[in-house]
Automatic annotation (TrEMBL):
Entries under PROSITE patterns matching the protein: HIS_KIN
Domain spans labelled Histidine kinase: 224-443
Organism: Deinococcus peraridilitoris (strain DSM 19664 / LMG 22246 / CIP 109416 / KR-200)
Catalytically driven reaction(s): ATP + protein L-histidine = ADP + protein N-phospho-L-histidine
Keywords: Coiled coil, Kinase, Phosphoprotein, Transferase, Two-component regulatory system
Protein name (database record): histidine kinase
GO molecular function annotation: phosphorelay sensor kinase activity
Entry EC no(s): 2.7.13.3
Gene3D superfamilies, per database record: 1.10.287.130, Histidine kinase-like ATPase, C-terminal domain
Superkingdom of origin: Bacteria
Coiled-coil regions listed: 159-214
Length: 464
């Protein structure tokens, strides 16, 4: 039996990316592919379709079923400018500024079959394949019935696709957590055993490699999902803003209230997606550091102007101390600002009355420490140990008031590491909290060993 084309879908708009992803997942489900396999194939196809729309202005998607070989193929073609240095891209020797090379290499790892051809000025064709399970689904359904089902599918809306992807993300996170827990249990059992040192060492190395691979897959998954989320979220924000500005007519008070709730909730979700993407970029080594000379006084002034409109509680004061004679820093001002914004935002969330004070002091001759001190509820000692971990939320009712993903402090710690620095905290229930970041005055060259620099900075310079 020859392979049969089930459906051809033109790609002309961003909505078509959402539609193709939904079609792919539906077809894989009908053919008996596992939930994880459906997500991997749908993610790979949507990445290729988005590339065709972004770089070539559109294209076409074909679903091809090879019943004899038990394979489902998805072919994405475009008439764009083609991909220069294709072999270098696929072998990891070239990355474009837009990250297209990373997308192609990662897509190839998500599928069972991958073929690509590209010529300058003649477009690009990419075909990916998924092996189908040995089930009677193909014989029972029939290719004509499958093709009819696909052609009758209602185009998925951005909100529906966002909800579906959110469920996939939650399932993937749960699966990763279960795997990490299994690894921890296995490691404890191995540590309790004092037999076969060579065999034990080999098994521990094997489990560590699996954990590193799981973390890599997690980072890539976050990156893909975050990109997929951004388009519908920005669309929702734009549409709600148009309605709130009365561009399409007046609203009732209740409609205005509900739209404002939609806008605020979408903005919070978009911030979570941005945090996920930032963490994924750091873990994948794709975050660049751009050092430049800047004054701390100027940075404090910018932060003061940024947070002043957010001080809605009259019982709380935000104080920025004078930096005195501190010299200029040579570091990445944007990443340092992101760290301090996270510290100050958390302090505002958990401080009911009193003040939040931002200060800076020298740490010996070569480093500076910037602290954010508040008079809030404080943090329990048990919570301090996990404060800077991914997805860790602490505070009153473990962050019930603030929401979020628990990635802010984890991201701050990773950004400080990129700047050859470190973060820390001291707190006690009912006594407020003190978060700090310690950085070198001059960011060392990349080739210098970070451990040696940190050791030189910490020799009796700052008290924790």
């Amino acid at each position: 039996m020859n392979p049969e084309v089930l459906l051809r879908v033109p790609v002309r708009a961003e909505q078509d990316v959402v539609t193709v992803r939904a079609n792919t997942k539906h077809l894989a489900d009908r053919l008996g592919v596992s939930s994880q396999g459906q997500t991997r194939l749908a993610t790979a196809v949507s990445e290729l379709v988005r590339n065709a729309y972004t770089y070539a202005g559109g294209g076409q998607v074909e679903y091809v079923l090879d019943a004899q070989a038990q394979m489902l193929y998805v072919r994405v073609t475009d008439q764009g400018p083609g991909i220069p240095r294709l072999q270098d891209v696929l072998e990891g020797r070239f990355d474009s500024p837009t990250g297209r090379g990373l997308g192609l290499r990662s897509t190839r790892r998500l599928v069972d079959a991958f073929e690509i051809s590209s010529s300058p000025g003649k477009g690009t064709t990419v075909q990916v394949g998924k092996a189908l399970p040995s089930t009677p689904a193909l014989r029972e359904l029939g290719t004509k019935r499958l093709a009819a089902e696909l052609s009758k599918l209602r185009p998925a809306s951005a909100v529906e696709e966002l909800q579906a992807q959110n469920q996939e993300l939650l399932r993937a996170l749960e699966d990763l957590a279960q795997r990490e827990e299994q690894l921890r249990v296995l490691n404890r059992e191995l540590e309790d055993t004092n037999r076969g040192v060579v065999a034990l060492y080999s098994e521990l190395e094997d489990k560590a490699e699996r954990l590193r691979e799981a973390n890599h897959v997690k980072s890539m998954f976050f990156s893909y999902m975050s990109h997929e989320f951004r388009t519908p979220l920005n669309s929702i924000l734009g549409l709600s803003r148009i309605l709130l500005e009365r561009q399409d007519g007046e609203l009732s008070p209740e409609q205005d209230k509900q739209l404002e709730l939609i806008r605020r909730s979408t903005g919070e979700l978009l911030q979570m997606v941005n945090d996920l993407l930032d963490v994924a970029k750091v873990e994948a080594g794709k975050t660049e550091v751009y050092p430049a000379n800047f004054e701390l006084a100027q940075l404090f002034s910018t932060l003061r102007a940024l947070f002043q409109p957010l001080l809605v509680n009259p019982d709380v004061r935000l104080v920025f101390e004078d930096v005195g004679e501190l010299p200029a820093l040579f570091s990445d001002q944007g990443k340092l600002s992101q760290i301090l914004r996270n510290f100050i935002s958390n302090a505002l969330k958990f401080t009911e009355q009193g003040e939040i004070r931002v200060s800076a002091t020298r740490c010996g001759a070569q480093a500076v420490r910037i602290e954010v001190t508040d008079t809030g509820a404080g943090i329990a000692p048990d919570d301090l140990m996990r404060l800077f971990r991914d997805f860790s939320q602490v505070g009153p009712q473990h962050g019930a008031r603030s929401g979020g993903t628990g990635l802010g402090l984890s991201l701050a710690s990773k950004l400080a590491g990129l700047l050859q620095g470190q973060v820390g905290v001291s707190s006690a229930p009912g006594q407020g909290s003190r978060f700090w970041v310690e950085l070198p005055l001059v960011l060392p060259e990349r080739e210098l060993e970070g451990s040696r620099e940190k050791s030189e900075r910490n020799e009796g310079e700052c008290d924790a």
